[in-house]
Amino acid sequence: MTRTIAPPHPFDAAVELTPVGDGLFRGHTSPAYANMVGPFGGITAATLVRAVQQHPDRLGDPLSLTVNFAGPVTEGPFEISARPVRTNRSTQHWALELSQGGVVATTATAVFGTRRETWSSTEIAAPDVPALDEVEAGTFPDFIAWARNYEMRFVEGGIPTTEAAEHPDTVSTLWVRDTPARPLDFAALTALSDVFFPRIFLRRGQFMPAGTVSMTVYFHADAEVLAEQAEDALLGTARAQQIRRGYFDQSAELWGRDGALLATTHQLVYFKD
């Protein structure tokens, strides 16, 4: 009897890398995660995390990641260089570059490390929202391919329609998870940290040219907490603090089971009007 091998999850196919020696990895962009211009930034960030995870010298799990989108990533092959610049007892610092045809498109730094049991406190709380099954699933325009890989149920601040008016604030809160369902891991959590569309879309009630310049993710969960999350939806909320002279910031939180804070993220985004 011939055994049929199931194809990989679209996410795993998108972040697949082939080691080619000396901290170098080769990959290829995925049409399933295309954005309005180039790939979805979250999938690029997730691929950088995967590169460090596959490096033979890696210590521990992600603690933070900062990605600087220096230029457009075009459809096709790319190469990632991952280099540990310093390893301490419990932390390890990484420098990464994604290039195409010898031209650097993305730079990043990451901190990986091991955690130990300590006193803990969380001073913010998850938003008080209706349960997942009480919120209708939302849809994105067809030209945003990457959004089809996520189930998004907006409690507030959904994607604006063509008839939308300006919104009084920039807050979006939603339930979100991979579709098809997939157990949560660090790479997937990285990508989920970028599912929040540019805040200016909501504030102005319209689509306009915008793109992330720099994104930082802080990972508050360890591997055990992510395993407990399994395939459950996460609760996310995002907002901007100021929109001014072609740039704005964007901050977000991702919450899991029992109100566990899994990640916080901060971005600098450019826009044109």
Automatic annotation (TrEMBL):
Domain Acyl-CoA thioesterase-like C-terminal: 135-270
InterPro entries for this protein: ACOT8-like_C, Acyl-CoA_hotdog, HotDog_dom_sf, Sec_Metab_Biosynth-Assoc, TesB_ACOT8-like_N
Domain Acyl-CoA thioesterase-like N-terminal HotDog per the UniProt entry, residue ranges: 32-113
SUPFAM superfamilies: Thioesterase/thiol ester dehydrase-isomerase
Name of protein: Acyl-CoA thioesterase
